[in-house]
Amino acid sequence: MTIDKKICLVTGGAGFIGSHLVDMLMDRGCEVRVLDNLANGKAENICQHEGSERFRFQKGDILNSGDVRPILQDVEVVFHLACLGVRHSIAKPFENHRVNAEGSLNLLLHAREAKVKRFVYCSSSEIYGTAQYVPMPESHPARPETVYGASKLAGEAYARAFHRSYGMETVVIRPFNTFGPRSHYEGDAGEVIPKSIVRVLNGKAILVFGDGSHARDFTFVRDVARGLILAGEHPEAVGQTLNIGTGFEISIRELAEKISALAAPEQPVHVDFQNPRPGDVGRLFADSGKFRALCGWKPEVDFNAGLRETVEYFRNHPLGVAALITGETGRNW
Ligand SMILES: NC(=O)c1ccc[n+]([C@@H]2O[C@H](COP(=O)([O-])OP(=O)(O)OC[C@H]3O[C@@H](n4cnc5c(N)ncnc54)[C@H](O)[C@@H]3O)[C@@H](O)[C@H]2O)c1
Questions:
Q1: 178 in ligand 1 pocket by Cβ < 6 Å?
Q2: What CATH superfamily classification does 7-178+218-244 receive?
Q3: Which of 31, 179, 300, 301 could staple 7 via S-S, CB 3.0–4.6 A?
Protein backbone atom coordinates (compact mmCIF):
# COMPACT_ATOMS: atom_id res chain seq x y z
CA MET A 1 0.00 0.00 0.00
CA THR A 2 1.22 3.52 -0.71
CA ILE A 3 0.20 6.44 1.45
CA ASP A 4 -0.16 8.69 -1.63
CA LYS A 5 -3.59 10.36 -1.76
CA LYS A 6 -4.90 8.45 1.26
CA ILE A 7 -7.18 10.06 3.83
CA CYS A 8 -5.06 10.39 6.99
CA LEU A 9 -5.72 11.59 10.51
CA VAL A 10 -2.78 12.97 12.52
CA THR A 11 -3.55 13.37 16.21
CA GLY A 12 -1.16 15.88 17.76
CA GLY A 13 -0.60 17.22 14.23
CA ALA A 14 -0.05 20.80 15.44
CA GLY A 15 2.87 19.62 17.58
CA PHE A 16 6.56 19.35 16.85
CA ILE A 17 6.83 15.94 15.11
CA GLY A 18 3.17 15.87 14.03
CA SER A 19 3.44 19.10 12.02
CA HIS A 20 6.42 17.75 10.03
CA LEU A 21 4.43 14.58 9.39
CA VAL A 22 1.52 16.72 8.16
CA ASP A 23 3.88 18.58 5.77
CA MET A 24 5.12 15.28 4.32
CA LEU A 25 1.63 13.78 3.96
CA MET A 26 0.45 16.94 2.18
CA ASP A 27 3.45 16.60 -0.17
CA ARG A 28 2.36 13.02 -0.88
CA GLY A 29 -1.07 14.22 -2.04
CA CYS A 30 -2.96 12.94 1.02
CA GLU A 31 -6.14 14.39 2.47
CA VAL A 32 -4.91 15.32 5.93
CA ARG A 33 -7.00 15.86 9.04
CA VAL A 34 -5.48 17.09 12.28
CA LEU A 35 -6.99 16.62 15.73
CA ASP A 36 -5.11 18.60 18.38
CA ASN A 37 -6.32 20.44 21.48
CA LEU A 38 -3.35 22.85 21.26
CA ALA A 39 -2.25 21.97 24.81
CA ASN A 40 1.31 22.16 23.47
CA GLY A 41 0.75 22.33 19.73
CA LYS A 42 0.72 25.62 17.82
CA ALA A 43 -1.58 26.73 15.01
CA GLU A 44 1.49 28.41 13.39
CA ASN A 45 3.05 24.97 12.84
CA ILE A 46 0.35 24.01 10.34
CA CYS A 47 -1.03 27.37 9.12
CA GLN A 48 0.82 26.91 5.79
CA HIS A 49 -1.86 24.34 4.85
CA GLU A 50 -4.91 26.47 5.72
CA GLY A 51 -6.89 27.08 2.56
CA SER A 52 -5.99 23.75 0.97
CA GLU A 53 -9.04 21.64 0.18
CA ARG A 54 -7.07 18.58 1.30
CA PHE A 55 -6.42 19.93 4.79
CA ARG A 56 -8.66 20.16 7.85
CA PHE A 57 -7.72 21.16 11.39
CA GLN A 58 -10.02 20.46 14.29
CA LYS A 59 -9.26 21.73 17.75
CA GLY A 60 -10.39 18.83 19.89
CA ASP A 61 -9.49 16.25 22.50
CA ILE A 62 -8.65 12.57 21.91
CA LEU A 63 -10.49 11.78 25.15
CA ASN A 64 -13.70 13.29 23.83
CA SER A 65 -15.62 10.83 21.64
CA GLY A 66 -17.66 13.74 20.27
CA ASP A 67 -14.42 15.13 18.75
CA VAL A 68 -12.94 11.79 17.71
CA ARG A 69 -15.86 10.01 16.03
CA PRO A 70 -16.71 12.57 13.31
CA ILE A 71 -13.11 13.29 12.28
CA LEU A 72 -12.45 9.55 11.79
CA GLN A 73 -15.17 9.16 9.18
CA ASP A 74 -13.65 7.70 5.95
CA VAL A 75 -10.10 7.90 7.38
CA GLU A 76 -7.80 5.17 6.01
CA VAL A 77 -4.66 5.71 8.09
CA VAL A 78 -4.36 7.10 11.63
CA PHE A 79 -1.07 8.47 12.92
CA HIS A 80 -1.52 8.83 16.67
CA LEU A 81 0.96 11.30 18.13
CA ALA A 82 -1.16 13.31 20.59
CA CYS A 83 0.21 13.06 24.11
CA LEU A 84 1.40 14.98 27.14
CA GLY A 85 5.14 14.89 27.77
CA VAL A 86 7.67 13.46 30.18
CA ARG A 87 8.19 16.59 32.34
CA HIS A 88 4.43 17.10 32.51
CA SER A 89 4.10 13.60 33.98
CA ILE A 90 6.31 14.50 36.96
CA ALA A 91 3.90 17.18 38.15
CA LYS A 92 0.59 15.81 36.82
CA PRO A 93 0.85 12.02 36.58
CA PHE A 94 -2.87 11.25 36.48
CA GLU A 95 -3.67 13.77 33.74
CA ASN A 96 -0.67 12.42 31.80
CA HIS A 97 -1.97 8.86 32.13
CA ARG A 98 -5.48 9.90 31.06
CA VAL A 99 -4.31 11.43 27.78
CA ASN A 100 -1.50 9.03 26.91
CA ALA A 101 -3.07 5.72 27.92
CA GLU A 102 -6.86 6.22 28.03
CA GLY A 103 -6.78 8.66 25.11
CA SER A 104 -4.98 6.04 23.00
CA LEU A 105 -7.52 3.38 23.92
CA ASN A 106 -10.38 5.75 23.07
CA LEU A 107 -8.86 6.49 19.68
CA LEU A 108 -8.27 2.79 18.94
CA LEU A 109 -11.89 1.98 19.79
CA HIS A 110 -13.24 4.65 17.47
CA ALA A 111 -10.72 3.82 14.73
CA ARG A 112 -11.91 0.22 14.77
CA GLU A 113 -15.54 1.33 14.65
CA ALA A 114 -14.69 3.58 11.66
CA LYS A 115 -12.94 0.64 9.90
CA VAL A 116 -9.63 2.48 9.65
CA LYS A 117 -7.20 0.47 7.53
CA ARG A 118 -4.03 1.14 9.52
CA PHE A 119 -3.21 2.66 12.90
CA VAL A 120 0.32 3.90 13.61
CA TYR A 121 0.95 4.42 17.31
CA CYS A 122 3.84 6.78 18.03
CA SER A 123 5.45 5.53 21.24
CA SER A 124 8.79 6.60 22.74
CA SER A 125 12.16 5.23 23.82
CA GLU A 126 11.14 6.37 27.31
CA ILE A 127 9.26 3.07 27.65
CA TYR A 128 12.65 1.34 28.10
CA GLY A 129 13.90 3.33 31.09
CA THR A 130 17.67 3.62 31.20
CA ALA A 131 19.71 1.32 28.94
CA GLN A 132 20.71 -1.98 30.55
CA TYR A 133 22.91 -2.64 27.50
CA VAL A 134 23.51 -0.84 24.22
CA PRO A 135 22.55 -0.53 21.48
CA MET A 136 18.95 -1.18 22.52
CA PRO A 137 16.85 -3.40 20.26
CA GLU A 138 13.07 -3.69 20.63
CA SER A 139 13.58 -6.78 22.86
CA HIS A 140 15.39 -4.64 25.49
CA PRO A 141 13.40 -4.81 28.79
CA ALA A 142 10.71 -2.14 29.12
CA ARG A 143 11.23 -0.57 32.56
CA PRO A 144 9.88 2.98 32.30
CA GLU A 145 11.05 5.39 35.00
CA THR A 146 8.27 7.96 34.62
CA VAL A 147 4.48 7.92 34.38
CA TYR A 148 4.98 9.28 30.86
CA GLY A 149 7.03 6.19 29.90
CA ALA A 150 4.55 3.90 31.65
CA SER A 151 1.51 5.50 29.99
CA LYS A 152 3.16 5.40 26.55
CA LEU A 153 3.83 1.70 27.17
CA ALA A 154 0.17 1.14 28.04
CA GLY A 155 -0.81 2.78 24.74
CA GLU A 156 1.58 0.45 22.92
CA ALA A 157 0.06 -2.56 24.62
CA TYR A 158 -3.44 -1.45 23.55
CA ALA A 159 -2.29 -1.03 19.95
CA ARG A 160 -0.75 -4.53 19.94
CA ALA A 161 -3.88 -5.94 21.60
CA PHE A 162 -6.07 -4.48 18.85
CA HIS A 163 -3.91 -6.27 16.29
CA ARG A 164 -4.15 -9.57 18.14
CA SER A 165 -7.79 -9.40 19.27
CA TYR A 166 -9.40 -7.74 16.26
CA GLY A 167 -6.88 -8.17 13.44
CA MET A 168 -6.53 -4.41 13.11
CA GLU A 169 -3.40 -3.30 11.22
CA THR A 170 -1.56 -1.56 14.04
CA VAL A 171 2.13 -0.59 14.14
CA VAL A 172 4.08 0.66 17.16
CA ILE A 173 6.94 3.06 16.45
CA ARG A 174 9.44 3.96 19.18
CA PRO A 175 11.33 7.12 18.25
CA PHE A 176 14.36 7.94 20.38
CA ASN A 177 14.97 11.63 21.20
CA THR A 178 13.95 13.82 18.29
CA PHE A 179 15.17 17.31 17.39
CA GLY A 180 14.76 19.92 14.69
CA PRO A 181 12.81 23.05 13.75
CA ARG A 182 9.58 23.63 15.76
CA SER A 183 10.92 21.62 18.73
CA HIS A 184 9.79 22.94 22.11
CA TYR A 185 11.98 25.37 24.01
CA GLU A 186 9.14 26.55 26.22
CA GLY A 187 7.38 25.41 29.41
CA ASP A 188 7.24 21.80 30.55
CA ALA A 189 7.43 20.60 26.92
CA GLY A 190 10.94 22.17 26.57
CA GLU A 191 13.72 19.81 25.44
CA VAL A 192 17.47 20.06 25.89
CA ILE A 193 18.46 21.04 22.33
CA PRO A 194 15.98 23.89 21.71
CA LYS A 195 16.25 25.15 25.31
CA SER A 196 20.04 25.26 25.05
CA ILE A 197 20.00 26.97 21.64
CA VAL A 198 17.62 29.67 22.90
CA ARG A 199 19.80 30.25 25.96
CA VAL A 200 23.06 30.50 23.98
CA LEU A 201 21.50 32.83 21.38
CA ASN A 202 20.53 35.07 24.31
CA GLY A 203 24.02 35.01 25.82
CA LYS A 204 23.00 32.76 28.73
CA ALA A 205 24.69 29.66 30.14
CA ILE A 206 23.39 26.26 29.04
CA LEU A 207 21.72 24.44 31.94
CA VAL A 208 22.76 20.82 32.41
CA PHE A 209 20.90 18.82 35.04
CA GLY A 210 23.41 16.38 36.54
CA ASP A 211 27.06 16.06 35.52
CA GLY A 212 26.32 15.88 31.77
CA SER A 213 27.50 12.28 31.43
CA HIS A 214 24.01 11.02 30.52
CA ALA A 215 23.74 10.27 26.83
CA ARG A 216 21.09 10.27 24.10
CA ASP A 217 20.60 9.17 20.52
CA PHE A 218 19.07 12.17 18.70
CA THR A 219 17.21 11.72 15.42
CA PHE A 220 16.32 14.59 13.10
CA VAL A 221 12.58 15.25 12.95
CA ARG A 222 12.11 14.69 9.20
CA ASP A 223 13.74 11.27 9.52
CA VAL A 224 11.21 10.42 12.26
CA ALA A 225 8.27 11.69 10.17
CA ARG A 226 9.49 9.62 7.20
CA GLY A 227 9.64 6.56 9.47
CA LEU A 228 6.07 7.11 10.64
CA ILE A 229 4.89 7.29 7.03
CA LEU A 230 6.75 4.08 6.20
CA ALA A 231 4.95 2.46 9.13
CA GLY A 232 1.68 3.65 7.63
CA GLU A 233 2.27 2.12 4.23
CA HIS A 234 4.76 -0.77 4.35
CA PRO A 235 3.21 -4.27 4.43
CA GLU A 236 5.96 -5.68 6.66
CA ALA A 237 5.31 -3.10 9.39
CA VAL A 238 1.92 -4.51 10.40
CA GLY A 239 1.84 -5.90 13.93
CA GLN A 240 5.44 -4.82 14.54
CA THR A 241 7.13 -2.74 17.22
CA LEU A 242 9.97 -0.74 15.66
CA ASN A 243 12.69 1.58 16.97
CA ILE A 244 13.68 4.80 15.25
CA GLY A 245 17.15 6.03 16.18
CA THR A 246 20.46 6.77 14.56
CA GLY A 247 22.84 4.56 16.53
CA PHE A 248 24.87 7.73 17.22
CA GLU A 249 25.29 8.59 20.88
CA ILE A 250 26.27 11.91 22.41
CA SER A 251 26.64 12.95 26.05
CA ILE A 252 24.72 16.01 27.21
CA ARG A 253 28.01 17.70 28.14
CA GLU A 254 29.38 17.20 24.61
CA LEU A 255 26.05 18.33 23.17
CA ALA A 256 26.24 21.57 25.17
CA GLU A 257 29.70 22.27 23.73
CA LYS A 258 28.53 21.60 20.19
CA ILE A 259 25.49 23.87 20.51
CA SER A 260 27.59 26.61 21.99
CA ALA A 261 30.14 26.40 19.16
CA LEU A 262 27.42 26.48 16.50
CA ALA A 263 25.10 29.13 17.96
CA ALA A 264 27.69 31.55 19.35
CA PRO A 265 31.21 30.66 18.19
CA GLU A 266 32.49 34.03 19.48
CA GLN A 267 31.41 33.25 23.07
CA PRO A 268 33.24 30.89 25.46
CA VAL A 269 31.31 27.71 26.30
CA HIS A 270 29.32 28.45 29.45
CA VAL A 271 27.57 25.52 31.13
CA ASP A 272 25.74 25.76 34.45
CA PHE A 273 25.61 22.28 36.07
CA GLN A 274 22.57 21.86 38.31
CA ASN A 275 21.09 19.04 40.41
CA PRO A 276 19.85 16.04 38.39
CA ARG A 277 16.23 16.07 37.20
CA PRO A 278 13.72 13.51 38.49
CA GLY A 279 13.10 10.69 36.01
CA ASP A 280 16.04 11.58 33.76
CA VAL A 281 17.26 8.23 32.43
CA GLY A 282 21.04 7.66 32.17
CA ARG A 283 21.45 6.39 28.66
CA LEU A 284 19.35 5.79 25.52
CA PHE A 285 21.00 4.45 22.41
CA ALA A 286 18.97 2.79 19.65
CA ASP A 287 19.38 -0.29 17.57
CA SER A 288 17.02 0.40 14.68
CA GLY A 289 18.25 -2.54 12.60
CA LYS A 290 14.84 -4.22 12.67
CA PHE A 291 13.05 -1.28 11.00
CA ARG A 292 15.83 -1.10 8.42
CA ALA A 293 15.69 -4.83 7.68
CA LEU A 294 11.89 -5.00 7.46
CA CYS A 295 11.03 -1.70 5.78
CA GLY A 296 14.31 -0.11 4.67
CA TRP A 297 14.18 2.85 7.10
CA LYS A 298 17.48 4.55 7.86
CA PRO A 299 18.37 8.07 9.01
CA GLU A 300 19.28 10.46 6.22
CA VAL A 301 20.10 13.67 8.06
CA ASP A 302 23.50 13.82 9.70
CA PHE A 303 23.41 15.04 13.34
CA ASN A 304 25.62 18.10 12.72
CA ALA A 305 23.62 19.17 9.66
CA GLY A 306 20.37 18.76 11.61
CA LEU A 307 21.77 20.77 14.52
CA ARG A 308 22.87 23.59 12.19
CA GLU A 309 19.38 23.72 10.64
CA THR A 310 17.82 23.82 14.12
CA VAL A 311 20.11 26.65 15.28
CA GLU A 312 19.26 28.66 12.14
CA TYR A 313 15.54 28.05 12.70
CA PHE A 314 15.75 29.58 16.19
CA ARG A 315 18.12 32.37 15.10
CA ASN A 316 15.49 33.42 12.50
CA HIS A 317 12.42 32.64 14.62
CA PRO A 318 9.47 34.94 13.76
CA LEU A 319 9.03 35.92 17.43
CA GLY A 320 12.65 37.10 17.58
CA VAL A 321 15.41 35.53 19.62
CA ALA A 322 14.98 37.89 22.59
CA ALA A 323 11.28 37.01 22.98
CA LEU A 324 12.02 33.27 23.10
CA ILE A 325 13.95 33.47 26.35
CA THR A 326 10.82 34.52 28.25
CA GLY A 327 9.28 31.09 27.47
CA GLU A 328 12.43 29.15 28.38
CA THR A 329 11.75 28.45 32.04
CA GLY A 330 15.03 26.73 32.96
CA ARG A 331 13.83 24.19 35.52
CA ASN A 332 10.66 22.88 33.81
CA TRP A 333 9.10 20.21 36.00
N1 LIG B 1 10.04 14.84 20.83
C2 LIG B 1 10.66 13.71 21.11
O3 LIG B 1 11.86 13.70 21.37
C4 LIG B 1 9.92 12.39 21.07
C5 LIG B 1 10.67 11.22 21.22
C6 LIG B 1 10.01 10.00 21.20
C7 LIG B 1 8.66 9.95 21.00
N8 LIG B 1 7.94 11.08 20.86
C9 LIG B 1 6.50 10.96 20.63
O10 LIG B 1 6.16 11.67 19.48
C11 LIG B 1 4.83 12.18 19.59
C12 LIG B 1 4.84 13.65 19.31
O13 LIG B 1 5.68 14.31 20.24
P14 LIG B 1 6.17 15.81 20.06
O15 LIG B 1 7.53 15.88 20.55
O16 LIG B 1 5.83 16.28 18.70
O17 LIG B 1 5.26 16.51 21.15
P18 LIG B 1 4.21 17.71 21.03
O19 LIG B 1 3.81 18.06 22.42
O20 LIG B 1 4.75 18.77 20.17
O21 LIG B 1 2.99 16.99 20.29
C22 LIG B 1 1.91 16.39 20.95
C23 LIG B 1 0.64 17.10 20.52
O24 LIG B 1 -0.47 16.49 21.15
C25 LIG B 1 -1.40 17.52 21.49
N26 LIG B 1 -2.26 17.04 22.56
C27 LIG B 1 -1.97 16.87 23.87
N28 LIG B 1 -3.02 16.39 24.54
C29 LIG B 1 -4.01 16.21 23.63
C30 LIG B 1 -5.35 15.76 23.72
N31 LIG B 1 -5.89 15.35 24.89
N32 LIG B 1 -6.09 15.73 22.58
C33 LIG B 1 -5.58 16.16 21.40
N34 LIG B 1 -4.31 16.61 21.27
C35 LIG B 1 -3.54 16.64 22.37
C36 LIG B 1 -0.54 18.71 21.88
O37 LIG B 1 -1.22 19.93 21.78
C38 LIG B 1 0.62 18.59 20.90
O39 LIG B 1 0.41 19.35 19.74
C40 LIG B 1 4.36 11.83 20.99
O41 LIG B 1 3.51 10.71 20.92
C42 LIG B 1 5.64 11.49 21.74
O43 LIG B 1 5.42 10.54 22.75
C44 LIG B 1 8.55 12.32 20.89
A1: yes
A2: NAD(P)-binding Rossmann-like Domain (3.40.50.720)
A3: 31
